[in-house]
Amino acid sequence: MPVVQLTVGDTGPPIEAWLTDGNGAPYDLTGKTYAFTAKRDGVTTLGGAAQLAPNAVPQDGHVMYIPSTADTAIGHVGWHEAKWHVIGADGGITSFPTEWEEPLRVHISAY
């Protein structure tokens, strides 16, 4: 997964991902909710509820998170390890990227 570069105060562009299963097929999000979180030094620094990307259908696995100014506040400058979390109707959670995928990193710069 790529590195996402944001600057203090940014509220976009949206952070997007195409979630896939272990075989590379789109991960079906039908009937599930999803969230995005990023941590620095083990502490959650940004994130919240995610949504389907524009024109996407749940079977595409295409999600997005729109950062807020609170997410990109000056206190969050630096590197963050990020994950997408898909929550099933039974409460089970599947996180992306998985252990066999490249980690998702978010960098927030001061300018």
Describe the 3D structure.
The protein has 111 residues and is mostly beta strands. It is built from no helices and nine strands. The strands form two sheets. Strands 1, 3, 4, 7, 8 and 9 form a six-stranded mixed sheet that branches. Strand 3 and strand 4 form a beta hairpin.
Tell me the helix content.
Answer: under 10%
Low-confidence stretches: none
Helix and strand pattern: EEEEEEEEE
Tell me the overall shape. Answer: globular
Estimate what percentage of residues fall within beta strands. Answer: over 45%
Mean pLDDT: 93
Biggest sheet, open or closed, and with what strands and sense? 6 strands, mixed
Task: Sum up the structure in keywords.
mainly beta; six-stranded mixed β-sheet; 111 residues
What can be said about this structure in brief?
With 111 residues, this protein is mostly beta strands. It has strands spanning 3-7, 15-18, 33-40, 43-49, 51-52, 62-65, 78-87, 93-96, 104-109.
Write the layout of secondary structure elements.
Blueprint: E1 3-7, E2 15-18, E3 33-40, E4 43-49, E5 51-52, E6 62-65, E7 78-87, E8 93-96, E9 104-109
Parallel strand pairs: 1-9
Antiparallel strand pairs: 2-6, 3-4, 3-7, 5-6, 7-8, 7-9
